Amino acid sequence: MGTNLNNPLVVQSDRTLLLEVDNPLYPEVRDALAPFAELIRSPEHIHTYRLTELSLWNAAAAGMTAQAMLDVLQRYSKYPVPANIIRDIPEIVSRYGRIRLEKDEQGLRLVCPDRPLLEELARHPEVRQYLGERLSASEFRVPTAHRGLIKQALISVGYPAEDLAGYTPGAFLDIRLRDTTLSGHPFQLRPYQKQAADIFYAGGDVRGGSGVIVLPCGAGKTIVGLAVMALLQRHTLVLTTSISAVKQWHRELLDKTFLTDEQIAEYTGESKELGPVTLATYNILTYRPEKTEEFPHFRIFDQQDWGLIIYDEVHLLPAPVFRITAQIQARRRLGLTATLVREDGREADVFSLIGPKKYDVPWRELETQGWIAEAQCCEIRVRLVEDLRLEYALAEPRLKYRLASENPAKLDIIAKLLERHAGDQVLIIGQYLSQLRQIRDRFHIPLITGTTPTAERERLYQAFREGKLPRLVLSKVGNFAIDLPDANVLIQVSGTFGSRQEEAQRLGRILRPKPDGIRARFYTLVTRDTKEMDFAQHRQLFLTEQGYTYQILDAEEILDPNHRTVGVGAQ
Description:
Elements: E1 9-11, E2 16-20, H1 26-33, E3 38-41, E4 46-50, H2 53-61, H3 66-76, H4 83-95, E5 100-104, E6 107-111, H5 115-122, H6 125-128, E7 134-136, E8 139-142, H7 147-156, E9 162-163, H8 191-201, E10 210-214, H9 221-232, E11 236-240, H10 243-256, E12 264-267, E13 277-281, H11 282-285, E14 308-311, H12 319-326, E15 332-337, H13 347-354, E16 357-360, H14 363-368, E17 375-382, H15 386-394, H16 397-405, H17 410-420, E18 426-429, H18 433-443, E19 447-448, H19 454-465, E20 471-474, E21 489-492, H20 500-508, E22 520-527, H21 531-545, E23 550-554, H22 555-559
Parallel strand pairs: 5-9, 10-15, 10-16, 11-13, 11-14, 12-13, 14-15, 17-22, 17-23, 18-20, 18-21, 19-20, 21-22
Antiparallel strand pairs: 1-2, 2-4, 3-4, 5-6, 6-8, 7-8
Helix pairs in contact: 2-4, 3-4, 7-13, 8-9, 20-21
């Protein structure tokens, strides 16, 4: 392909891609790159993507060909695509599936028709330790207990295995979806929910049954889980982030399926029951009295004949749960998430142990179709109060971030935003409890933290859902699965350093479609010229990744509507 300087993309030989934001083709190219390239920087004018092995393998597992990826790069690149990229993409993509795990009467076999490759892998110390006897020039026996471990080893040496060994069926359970919810509303799967469930199920074939569904918060990931359960008709273990999320799953199961309350059990810090459908928290699974002891609640994985394990918010899956997941590869595994980005960098473990990405749909696409609310994102930059400037200058780096986050000047901005959104359902979310207590006391808004008793937490959530309570202040508990569909304004006063996954969770709190079609608004308050600005730019990666633009305003524009700041506007 020749040179076309009107195109917005520059493809570089180090596998980075530079995309011009101000080009008219920007939205089209952004959406075309999303399935197979990872966004790593998103300042005002040039966004940087990287082609990683994992991003290419995830795209391949979701059905995208190497040629389709190259077509995107060649169609939108300003300059000819470097020759090494044209060679590398097919080579990397072809590695997925060259090694297969299959099953016969005696157990598992590792199969690789490429004998030189198999010889090389069989001599690799990370792989060799998990191989059993050699069966032929192209096959090794693999002990059943090593099914997960060998997949981790293979992906670490650059050859992710395609697992075709199938699954234990699990105990039968009659699970059917309702046409009318228990609360009396018509119910049917949205087209993308049905498609996601069908792709995961794959007609019951061995190519289905494990993988990750990526959907925006507010798009009904729980409903996809119910749809998969109805396709499989098996005992199911659901692992999720909090007791509030357990309660939400419980409500949805009763409301949208014919399961009875007796068939649904909760296994949490409050109640340790087991049933045909069991809802558990990651916290209870990773509890142990002493760090040197085993995890006593891991036995839950063996106490029922599970046909499906659902990992809700799989990007938050704790490290110990990866370990037990490596041992239960014969169970079907469904991961649900709004973002594959993990702050601990263990995306490859999600790929090998839960499964590759099977389905992904851009937030903006669902927004355009009306399935999630249109969102306007705004960053408000606030000056640090004069009294704290010297203390900030002398502080250690971690304390600098906290001082900037808890900047008292943010309280006046909150007051103005609450005044502006007097008729709206408003959530205020932050990181630091002392700051949140100040907001609670000044504005007389109930505060929910991790120590709020579950009964009180549920009472406040229900009052908010019913419109009796128009405002809530939430600590980090607001990051996780809570069902507050009428929330349409979120004010983020502080965050966890540069967490993209946190931004995903928080934005998702306000993306449920609103009956009157009103736009959701997401405000982030950031102290200018401080460490908080640096971390805010990292979190904005998530918004850009999902196709959102965001406005940057100076605090004076909120405090004084007649004030105008030169050079600040939509980004």
